[in-house]
Amino acid sequence: MNTFSAVRRKYLLSLSALALSATFSLTPGASAAAQQAPSKLIITAIPDDGDADRMRENFGALASYLGQAVGIPVEYMHVENYAASVTALATGRAHLAWLGGVTIAQARMQMGDGITVLGSRDIDKGFVSYFIANPDTGLGQLADLGELAKAAQGKDWTFTFGSKSSTSGHVMPRKFFIDQTGTTPEKVFRTVAYSGSHDVVMQMVADGTHDVGALNYASWDKAPGELQAKAPIIYKTPPYIDYALTARSDLGPELLGKLRVALLALDASNEDGAKVLKYLKAGKFVEADISEWQSVVDLLESGIDIGN
């Protein structure tokens, strides 16, 4: 089967289906140079997976799919930290970026209307984080995080988040902890660390490096059963909005429209689509608007204590 032809056919059918609701014509008098598509698109992503090679493989598949669909080569560029992904998009080193809620809000605060959302996963508008604990703590399922704070009193427990800029691995778990306990993790645990990524948090809790930690539920759910048993869930947070594929608005309405249609059409009918959806723990991509992340912008602008 010719994968390129199959992807292009699916893309063209989807584009036709959405033609009544999307406008791809240039504004009269607009600069042709401003609307000219680049010869190559660069996509990056927050490094929330501790395995850089795995990220290259799977986001490379997304790049391949999008490139085949819109007829422009797309290349994945790996970055070493969350801030670098925002900087790459804001400065134009990347045209597209897979970001989480906090990094979307940070990019919005830097770029204003210069950032747009192409779509999010079907799981991203009701995302949750898990608090997990090493079995040696004796902790079971908790009704709220106030119970965790009480259980930690007089103990020598340590705690780990993921990256400081992670929505699901730090900022939202911290927000819920503060809301439910009236204090910060630093005042409850002997130390509070930042392990960098969700899978590292899980491994460090499982091996006893840290007693308790927080991570996104998708990372825990896709871990092997034996690892889950060594880092069981003790609390699930309320839902919030998280990841999306974002783009620079200056790509222009025509190319952005094509990219959006291609993303929403992605499914498991071709090898790249199946790989991407499996890796991202998604059934499909859905429409989303940058305004849906305003609550995260408001949270950051409120001056929430995000730790030392």
Task: Explain what you see.
It is built from 13 helices and eleven strands. By secondary structure, the chain is an alpha/beta fold. It has two domains: 3-125 and 241-301, D-Maltodextrin-Binding Protein, domain 2 (3-Layer(aba) Sandwich); 128-236, Periplasmic binding protein-like II (D-Maltodextrin-Binding Protein, domain 2), CATH 3.40.190.10. The strands form two sheets. It has a six-stranded mixed β-sheet with strand order 2-1-3-10-4-11, sandwiched between helices. Strands 7-6-8-5-9 form a five-stranded mixed β-sheet. Helix 1 packs across helix 3 (52-70), helix 3 crosses helix 12 and helix 4 runs parallel beside helix 5. The radius of gyration is 21 Å and the shape is globular. Residues 1-32 form the signal peptide. One of its GO terms (biological process) is transmembrane transport.
Q: Domain count, please report it.
A: 2
| CATH secondary-structure class of the largest domain | Alpha Beta
Low-confidence stretches: 1-34
Query: Biggest sheet, strands in spatial order?
Result: 2-1-3-10-4-11
Kindly list the characteristics that best describe this protein:
single chain; 308 residues; alpha/beta; D-Maltodextrin-Binding Protein, domain 2; 2 domains; 6-stranded mixed beta sheet; 5-stranded mixed beta sheet; globular; disordered N terminus; PhnD; Phosphonate transport system substrate-binding protein
List the helices and strands and how they pair.
Elements: H1 3-17, H2 32-35, E1 41-45, H3 52-70, E2 74-76, H4 82-91, E3 96-99, H5 101-111, E4 115-121, E5 129-133, H6 145-152, E6 158-161, H7 167-181, E7 191-194, H8 198-206, E8 212-216, H9 217-221, H10 225-230, E9 233-236, E10 244-248, H11 253-265, H12 271-279, E11 285-286, H13 294-301
Parallel strand pairs: 1-2, 1-3, 6-7, 6-8
Antiparallel strand pairs: 3-10, 4-10, 4-11, 5-8, 5-9
Helix pairs in contact: 1-3, 1-11, 3-11, 3-12, 4-5, 5-13
